[in-house]
């Protein structure tokens, strides 16, 4: 029983799978097209595609001979939504405020 | 040899670890404070903290008795940066454009 977001993060925790998603963001591609630039066997690429498919990050066409892979962005939208809750920790404004508070602290201490 | 982003995604692929980060976004906390609401042993919580620490998502204070955990947002900023490249796939504008193109396609097909 893995929750959806955990499955998404787990699928993204691999540079090959992220490279595949980046390629698919330019349009649909077959397994052979996806495998071409990758330094691994076709079965290895297929295993990565299966992980991406199970996480809902890609879907595959129904045609038996030519089953193009297609990016599905909903899980990525969920990741963006999750991480957005932490935005205030790196926004410029927050950094400047923190720096300012540290400076004030320094003056008090000194 | 795991790349930084893969290590971050891997660390985030667990609901307990994400709950710990959410708690720390409200401020520093000790291991005991973090463990209190969690349905698991203190050693189990410590193992999760170790994964978060190794991924650079938290740091821990130096004091031996009271080693507060602190959220470190840099890896989360990197996640936000990575996922932002896919934003066009779920932005309203894109959805509407896609829907419009589908409608046009439907008219051509019909």
Task: State the gist of this model.
Chain A is 60% helix and 5% strand. Chain A has a two-stranded antiparallel sheet.
What topology emerges from the helices and strands here?
Two copies of one chain form a homodimer.
Chain A: H1 4-12, H2 15-24, H3 31-35, H4 42-54, E1 58-60, E2 69-71, H5 74-84, H6 92-109
Antiparallel strand pairs in A: 1-2
Helix pairs in contact in A: 1-5
GO molecular function, one term (chains A, B): DNA-binding transcription factor activity
Protein name (chains A, B): Transcriptional regulator
Organism (chains A, B): Amycolatopsis vastitatis
Can you put this structure into words, describing what you see?
With 110 residues, chain A is mostly helical. Helix content of chain A is 60%, strand content 5%. The first copy, chain A, has six helices and two strands, in the order ααααββαα. Chain A has a two-stranded antiparallel ribbon. The termini of chain A are far apart. The mean pLDDT of chain A is 88.
Task: Name some characteristics of this structure.
Arc Repressor Mutant, subunit A, mainly alpha, Transcriptional regulator (chains A, B), two-stranded antiparallel ribbon, DNA-binding transcription factor activity (chains A, B), homodimer, 2 strands, 6 helices, HTH_ArsR_DNA-bd_dom (chains A, B), ArsR-like_HTH (chains A, B), 110 residues
């Amino acid at each position: 029983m893995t929750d959806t977001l955990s499955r998404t993060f787990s699928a993204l925790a691999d540079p090959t799978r992220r490279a595949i998603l980046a390629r698919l963001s330019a349009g649909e591609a077959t397994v052979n097209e996806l495998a071409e630039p990758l330094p691994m066997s076709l079965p290895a690429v297929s295993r990565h595609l299966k992980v991406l498919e199970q996480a809902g990050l890609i879907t595959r066409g129904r045609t038996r001979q030519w089953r193009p892979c297609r990016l599905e962005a909903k899980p990525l939208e969920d990741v963006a939504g999750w991480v957005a809750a932490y935005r205030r920790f790196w926004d410029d404004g927050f950094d400047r405020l923190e720096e300012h508070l540290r400076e004030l602290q320094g003056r008090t201490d000194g």
